[in-house]
Amino acid sequence: MNPSVSIIVPCYNEEKTIRHLLDAVLAQTYPRALMELVISDGLSMDRTRGVIASFQKEHPDLAIHVVENSARTIPSGLNQAIRKSKGEVIVRLDAHSMPIPEYVERCVAAHQSGKGDNVGGVWEIRPSADTWIAKSISFAAAHPLGVGDAMYRLNAKAGAVDTVPFGSFRRTLIDKIGMFDETLLTNEDYEFNTRVRESGGTVWLDPSIRSVYFSRGTLGKLAAQYWRYGFWKFKMLQRYPHTLRWRQALPPLFVFSLFTLIVLSLFIGFARYLLTAQLFGYFFALALAGLKLAMEKKIGFSLFGLPLAISTMHLAWGAGFLWSGISNPFKKHG
User: Fold this and answer.
1) Which pTM was predicted?
2) Alpha-carbon span 111 to 171, nearest angstrom
């Protein structure tokens, strides 16, 4: 017997991408009668709700429920959607995502075969706009220099991992470890998966479970996104310091060293040489990566677009992390 499935989606002002998600859910190979879609909307100010309502009229055979997320945070939206949902298996998706038709079917199959307690797949990252900078950001978001060893963004093999994007789990997992932590406005997935692993469970990555993810379209939006990532990562690490990975430690160390050398260079001449050498080495490495990508993809803009995007990710993430520690170093969330 196939289990019932609830797809939960937090969203806010997603009129440009929500239709992609709705169409992708409609195209799922899993029996439609066993699926429901629960969208937790953070009081969108654009046409998001109208797009959803129009889709519901066009496809009344797909059960769609919309709940209001007055707190306007991702974890509160997820928890509200879980409370509203009824499925035995919960599949978390994002309004910026577009799962392949077999997505739900493969998630359920992985659970039925006992692969993991939280099962997810890999991202195929696409630009959210037809501009050179949006395309550069999409390349950076899947590049090893941008995301380190985050396997769900790279070519990965099936196996146990620290975390997966979105994820799917049986409702009984919530009974065991609790819901998403609403005190963390970002990194709620990683924190949830940490509790899965510390409870003796397994987080499983299955590369056959794939979804398209639309990256941010401008450097400003990218910087804001990665500042939040860094800021809330520090809060999470206060609770779980042993979960720190090298890819997460490097950006704050880089930003701290830059700041230190800039201050010292005002008084010590040698510090200026070190600062110059560090910046030259850093951007030279990024330029080589941009050149390699330009030659492989035959797109000249990546020569400067990739370094711009990756450096924005590093600096914003590192600065957000450091500011989180400086602004309130002793306050633990949750």
Assistant:
1) 0.85
2) 12
